[in-house]
């Protein structure tokens, strides 16, 4: 019986390929669907009942494989062949490492600033508030906020970029 079913599946191949191509929109993916469908059909031949339509059973198998692949691609996202996409923009690992080290230095520097400077730099530079809104949020005059921001930014630059902490330096 297996030889007979195998012969009938081979006879169905052109129809199965058309169906798989219509589902996938790609001849190669369609062929992969048919191949996977035939492999599953032979692996589970005991589930096909003689006297029922073999073509309907094969279509269902291929359709289920295609549906499973569609669901899986939503989870995984779009696959890109790297060889066919030579102009992919990526991040240089050195730049990423440098940026992370710089961020770490900035965060450490920010933590070493006086609280009022930390708050102003966070409100203006991170949260995007205007000087006026930041001053109002902290209940201080705009001029005071501006001078604290200038001092805080200078200190932060010295800590993060120059590697020195002006808060620890004595004024001459």
Structure overview:
- The chain is mostly helical.
- The chain has 2 domains: 2-78, Orthogonal Bundle (Rna Polymerase Sigma Factor, Chain: A), CATH 1.10.1740; 93-162, Winged helix-like DNA-binding domain superfamily/Winged helix DNA-binding domain (Arc Repressor Mutant, subunit A).
- The protein contains 7 helices and no strands.
- It is rod-shaped.
- The mean pLDDT is 82.
Keywords:
Rna Polymerase Sigma Factor, Chain: A; Arc Repressor Mutant, subunit A; mainly alpha
Radius of gyration: 33 Å
**How would a textbook summarize the main sheet?**
none
CATH architecture assignment name of the largest domain: Orthogonal Bundle
Shape: rod-shaped
Alpha-carbon distance between the two ends: 100 Å
> Under the CATH scheme, which class of the largest domain?
Mainly Alpha
The tally of helices reads 7
How many β strands by DSSP?
0
Q: How many structural domains can be distinguished in the coordinates?
A: 2
What's the CATH H-level homologous superfamily of the largest domain?
RNA polymerase sigma factor, region 2, helix turn helix motif
Order of helices and strands: HHHHHHH
- Range of strand content: under 5%
Flag low-confidence runs: none
Helical percent range? over 70%
The CATH topology label of the largest domain is: Rna Polymerase Sigma Factor, Chain: A
Provide the structure class: mainly alpha
Give the mean pLDDT: 82
């Amino acid at each position: 019986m297996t030889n007979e079913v195998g012969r009938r599946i081979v006879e169905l191949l052109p129809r199965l390929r058309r169906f798989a191509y219509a589902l996938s929109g790609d001849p190669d993916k369609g062929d992969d669907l048919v191949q996977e469908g035939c492999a599953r059909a032979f692996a589970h031949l005991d589930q096909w009942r003689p006297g029922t339509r073999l073509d309907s059973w094969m279509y269902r198998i291929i359709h289920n494989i295609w549906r499973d692949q569609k669901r899986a691609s939503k989870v995984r996202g779009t696959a890109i062949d790297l060889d066919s996409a030579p102009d992919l923009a990526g991040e240089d690992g050195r730049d990423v490492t440098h940026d992370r080290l710089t961020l770490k230095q900035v965060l450490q520097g920010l933590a070493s600033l006086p609280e009022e400077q930390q708050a102003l730099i966070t409100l203006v530079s991170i949260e995007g508030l205007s000087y006026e809104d930041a001053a109002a949020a902290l209940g201080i005059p705009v001029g005071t906020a501006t001078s604290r921001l200038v001092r805080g930014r200078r200190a932060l630059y010295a800590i993060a970029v120059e590697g020195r902490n002006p808060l620890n330096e004595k004024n001459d």
